[in-house]
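User: Can you help me understand a structure? I only have the sequence.
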Amino acid sequence: SLSLHRCGLPREIAIELFQPFVIRGLIRQNIASNIGVAKSQIREKGPIVWEILQEVMQGHPVLLNRAPTLHRLGIQAFQPILVEGRAICLHPLVCKGFNADFDGDQMAVHVPLSLEAQAEAR
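Assistant: Let's start by predicting it. Here is the structure, written out as tokens:
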């Protein structure tokens, strides 16, 4: 049920990748008074943390890379969504570019930080 331009990121991976953005969101919404309190709330994994993570992820593409990157399709940009479990979810039609075959392959996930990098990923 995933679109070609989307990938499913497990909650554990997503919260680590987007932690600085979630901390900023917690502080801006006056839910946390400082970074320490925000990190504590992230460790507790309350519902507000997942809501802020969802908002943050909507505006940030991610890059998925499966080594070895032998051609340009070995690293691709996706719009992430949260999924349950511990595996990255992909549409089956994008697997050929990664030479992925669902037998335990490992992938790297990168979050472009600068506006230029995000624009290029889109």
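Now, to help you interpret it: The chain is about 40% helix and 15% strand. The mean pLDDT is 89. Let me know which part you'd like to focus on.
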